[in-house]
Amino acid sequence: MKCVKPLLLASAIAACVCVQADELNKVIQSSDKINQLATGSQKKIDGMVDSMQTRLQQYKTLNKEIDGLEIYNSQLNKQVNNQLAELDSLAQSMDQVAVIERQITPLMLRMINGLEQFVQLDVPFLAKERSDRVASLKSMMDRADIASSEKFRRVLEAYQVEVDYGRTIEAYTSLLDVNGVEREVDFLRVGRLDLIYLTRDGKLAGIWNNQTKAFDPLPDSNISQINKALRIARKQLAPDMLTLPVQAAE
Question: What start-end ranges are recorded for coiled-coil regions in this protein (predicted)?
Fold first, then answer.
């Protein structure tokens, strides 16, 4: 009977230890759950922080784009305003063009008639070519498919050709009535100063007399210089001094 108490005490202690162990396990389990929840919460917080950083960066980027678009729109507004001003100017110009076009047509007709009279009264070099040019201009004026600007350009071009004749030397071959016989001759044009012919056999030469509207015969002493001038005009000889007859102007 004396041994029963120690056994009971040991059993009680063991039972108490078991109870404490169970409670400790529960505490440990609860701590693990808390740690897991804390870890999950931290992950959520980290995710939210990352998301906020990303959105903040996107916000800053969008602000920069907005600033750039505002500058771009401001520049576009300036360009649009300039284009509107140009449109107004063009509209005014178009109204003026209509007036100018009504005035330019009579001017061109007068210019063509003046050119025709000039060719008829001028030294008769390249007569067919020049008369055909005038005829072409007259025909052009009746055409509706050619703009007035193009017509005016061609009239000015014809005038420029005539101006160039006065400062160039030229040699060309054509037919001419010489002493009642049509012969092939070489013509020498020196500006508008001289129009001289030389027969192909080199025996007869003449110079245009604008007063009599006919060719006057030249002596044989001029033939060598005329030949030389023809070769210079054809670029067969280098430019050199020439002694040629000149019709005196009145």
Answer: 59-93
